[in-house]
Design goal:
Helix content: 10-25%
Structural class: alpha+beta
Strand content: 25-35%
Distance between the termini: 28 Å
CATH topology of the largest domain: Rossmann fold
Number of strands: 21
Low-confidence stretches: 1-7
Order of helices and strands: EEEEEEEEEEEHHEHEHHEHEHEEEEEE
Number of helices: 7
CATH class of the largest domain: Alpha Beta
C-alpha cells in the first residue's frame, strides 16, 4: 500500500499507482480515535487541482474505513481527506494514474512514427493565454512525461489561419507527433461547424501525409459548440487514424476556479487540460534509446512504453553481453537510466520486446 501521513494520524492509502478508465479505485483511511466525524469526507482530485475543484467526493460516515471511486477519465489523480464538511484537509494520498484502455495502435496512422520533435499546434489555448510562465499545457505535459514539446500555439488563430502557417510551423520541422488543438476561435467568429471540420481534416491529412507524424486530435467542444459537436471530433479521429483526446475543456470554461476570464484556463485549468492530453501523447511516443559514450562505458537513457517489457543487450562483441530488463511503471518512472561497461570493445545495442 502506498501511504502518506499528513496530520495527527489521519492517513489515506491506495493499493497501487496504476488503474484503467472505468476501474474501481479503492481508498482506505485511518483517523484518530475521536474521528471520523459525521461530516468527514474524501474527495477525488486531479493531482494538480486546488481543494475547491474536486472531481467527486463521498462522506466517510457508515463506510467504516474504505470506499471506492470509479474514474471515467484518464489522468493523474489523488485523494484528500477533509473534516467537518468544510475544506479542512487532514491527509492527501500519493498520486496515481488512470490510463485509457490499451489502444489498438494498429489503427493509429503512422505509428510508430519516425524520430523528430513533438509539436503542439493550436491557438491561444496552446500558446497559454491565461497561464503564468511554464504553466501552459505543453510545458506541463513535457514535465509530466519527461519529453520536449515545441509550442506552436498562436493566439487568435482559426483553423483557416492555422492552415496558412502550418508549413513553416509544423511540416518543415518533420515532427514525430503533433497535438492539434484548434476550433475555439472558429466558434467565436461564427465559422460554420462544417467548415471547421473540413479545415481540421485537411490539417490532420497534411501532417500525416507530409511528415509521417502521428496526430493527436484534442476535442474542444464543451463550452463552445456543446456536446453535439463531440461526434465531429470523434468521427474525424476515426476517419484519419488520429489519436483522440476528448473534450479537454470540460468543466473549465465559465468556471471561476479554473479560468480567470471564464474562457481561457488559468494555471489550475491548464493543469487539467494537460492531464487529459498527456495519456494520449504517452500512448504513441515511440520507444527510443539515447546513448552517451564515456571512455570505458555507455550511459543509456531508455524511453519505453508503460506496461510493456523490453530487453537490452550490448552485442556485436564476443561474447555478447547479458540481457538487461527494461520496465517502466506508470506514475513513477518516465525513463530508465543504465550504465553499461564497454571495456574498450566495439559493438552495438540490441533491444527486443519481451
Amino acid at each position: 500500500m502506498s501511504r502518506v501521513v499528513v496530520a495527527q494520524d489521519y492517513t489515506l492509502a491506495i493499493a497501487t499507482n496504476r488503474f484503467t478508465v472505468g476501474e474501481s479505485v479503492y481508498v482506505a483511511w485511518s483517523t484518530p480515535p475521536w474521528s471520523p466525524g459525521f461530516f468527514d469526507w474524501v474527495g477525488l482530485y486531479h493531482a494538480s487541482a486546488n481543494d475547491f475543484n474536486w472531481v467527486s467526493y463521498k462522506y466517510t460516515l457508515f463506510r467504516f474505513d474504505d470506499t471506492y471511486f470509479t474514474v471515467e477519465e484518464a489522468g493523474e489523480y489523488n485523494f484528500r481527506y477533509f473534516v467537518d464538511n468544510v475544506l479542512d484537509k487532514r491527509a492527501t494520498s500519493s498520486n496515481f494514474w488512470v490510463w485509457p484502455p490499451a489502444a489498438d495502435l494498429s489503427l493509429v496512422r503512422n505509428y510508430p512514427s519516425p524520430p523528430g520533435p513533438i509539436i503542439a499546434f493550436g491557438d491561444s489555448l496552446t500558446a497559454g493565454v491565461g497561464a503564468s510562465a511554464g504553466h501552459d499545457w505543453p510545458a506541463i505535459v513535457s514535465a509530466t512525461l519527461g519529453i520536449d514539446i515545441q509550442n506552436a500555439g498562436v493566439s487568435g488563430d482559426t483553423t483557416a489561419d492555422a492552415l496558412l502557417r502550418m508549413g513553416r510551423d509544423v511540416l518543415v520541422k518533420r515532427p514525430s507527433i503533433v497535438v492539434v488543438l484548434l476550433g475555439g476561435n472558429d466558434f467565436l467568429r461564427r465559422v460554420p461547424a462544417e467548415t471547421t471540420a473540413a479545415n481540421l481534416k485537411t490539417i490532420v491529412a497534411r501532417i500525416q501525409n507530409g511528415t509521417g507524424a502521428v496526430v493527436v486530435l484534442a476535442g474542444v467542444q464543451s463550452g463552445y459548440w456543446g456536446d453535439s459537436f463531440a461526434s465531429v471530433f470523434r468521427r474525424l479521429a476515426d476517419e484519419t487514424g488520429a489519436v483522440y483526446a476528448p473534450d479537454v475543456l470540460r468543466g473549465i470554461v465559465n468556471n471561476p476556479f479554473l479560468s480567470d476570464d471564464l474562457l481561457h484556463p488559468n494555471d489550475a485549468g491548464y493543469a487539467v487540460v494537460a492531464n487529459r492530453i498527456a495519456p494520449a501523447v504517452a500512448a504513441v511516443i515511440p520507444p527510443r534509446l539515447a546513448i552517451k559514450a564515456a571512455p570505458d562505458s555507455f550511459l543509456l537513457t531508455w524511453f519505453g512504453r508503460v506496461g510493456e517489457n523490453y530487453g537490452l543487450q550490448f552485442a556485436g562483441a564476443f561474447p555478447d553481453g547479458p540481457w538487461i530488463e527494461l520496465v517502466l511503471t506508470a506514475g513513477t518512472d518516465k525513463f530508465v537510466l543504465i550504465k553499461v561497461r564497454s571495456e574498450g570493445k566495439q559493438g552495438f545495442f540490441r533491444i527486443m520486446k519481451r
